[in-house]
Amino acid sequence: MNLVAVDWGTSSLRGARLDEAGRVLEEKTTPQGILAVPAGQFPAVFESLFSDWMKAADSFCLISGMAGSRQGWAEAPYEACPADLSQLARRLHWIEEGRIAIVPGLSDEQGSVPDVMRGEEVQIFGAMRLTGMTTGLFVLPGTHNKWVTVRDGRITGFRTCMTGEFYAVLSQHSILGRTMQADAPLDEPAFLRGLAVADNGEGLLHNAFGARTLALFRRLSAPALASYLSGVLIGEELRARPLKDAQHVVLIGAPALTMRYALALETLGVGAQILGAEATWAGAHALHTVLQARSSA
């Protein structure tokens, strides 16, 4: 078996070739996310990157992420929560029957406003496989952070927070960006200071302005201000999340972000296990295993 797992996001495209045991044999990463692909060119981009991996007769490809959105290769409708791997397997959108498929995203509705994810569902099922944790809280920091509740191996619900996008807007397109270095490495004391301020009861709209006044009175440097604002925003996010009974959280994402969340959770007495790209590949392999079991039943 030659499994090709592809995570096709908005701004980037990652792929891995896996063996039958789920071990990664090769990886590829490019900036050819869906926004960089002209209309009608998804098959050509896929062929240019993965044709060598798909030559073998037994090759099979699972594509997750924004490739399944209306702006992507082909729309794969959302599957409603609660959902498990078997439900995803039944709702695959086939690009080439029995050979190339797009994994559907998930939707959740608590109240009158729906929430959605694409790609994170595969990461979560992979994280469950890697950690053995089938009930608990999984957090995926990024542009749009996901807080996902899992019970008995099923994703039961989730909430999205636009924390990463708010940071980008405030640090690059507001007056706050005039005095901070948005891409500066983590300044831990400044970050923790921002976390503490977020819990002062004054609210985000007031607390964010502190990044302006701390610069005005030269109390924090430009690199430190970036960490301070990050702490304020992440602190606001944590303040609104259901962490009272959580003792352990699985974090999935890029190290620069998961490290900050682990630090923030530590201040609340919550432990964290951190995973990266390996969660995506493990999730694709787990889904393929379900497909194999169904086909042989």
Biggest sheet features: 6 strands, mixed
Q: Label the structural class.
A: alpha/beta
Written as H for each helix and E for each strand, in order along the chain, the element string is EEEHEEHEEEEHEEEHHHHHEHEH
Question: What general form does the structure show?
Answer: globular
Q: Explain this structure to me?
A:
The protein is α/β, with parallel strands linked by helices and 297 residues long. It has helices at residues 42-50, 85-90, 120-131, 163-173, 188-198, 204-207, 210-216, 222-239, 255-267, 278-296; strands spanning 2-8, 13-18, 24-30, 59-65, 79-80, 93-96, 100-102, 106-109, 114-117, 136-140, 145-151, 154-161, 248-252, 271-275. The strands form three sheets. It has a six-stranded mixed beta sheet, with helices on one face. Strands 12-11-10-13-14 form a five-stranded mixed beta sheet, sandwiched between helices. Strands 5-8-9 form a three-stranded mixed beta sheet, with no helix packed on it. Helix 4 packs antiparallel against helix 8 (222-239). The protein is globular, with a radius of gyration of 20 Å. It starts with a strand and ends with a helix.
Keywords:
297 residues, alpha/beta, 6-stranded mixed sheet, 10 helices, 14 strands
Overview in brief:
The chain has 297 residues and is of the alpha/beta class.
Write the layout of secondary structure elements.
Layout: E1 2-8, E2 13-18, E3 24-30, H1 42-50, E4 59-65, E5 79-80, H2 85-90, E6 93-96, E7 100-102, E8 106-109, E9 114-117, H3 120-131, E10 136-140, E11 145-151, E12 154-161, H4 163-173, H5 188-198, H6 204-207, H7 210-216, H8 222-239, E13 248-252, H9 255-267, E14 271-275, H10 278-296
Parallel strand pairs: 1-4, 4-7, 5-8, 10-13, 13-14
Antiparallel strand pairs: 1-2, 2-3, 6-7, 8-9, 10-11, 11-12
Helix pairs in contact: 3-10, 4-8, 5-8, 7-8, 8-9
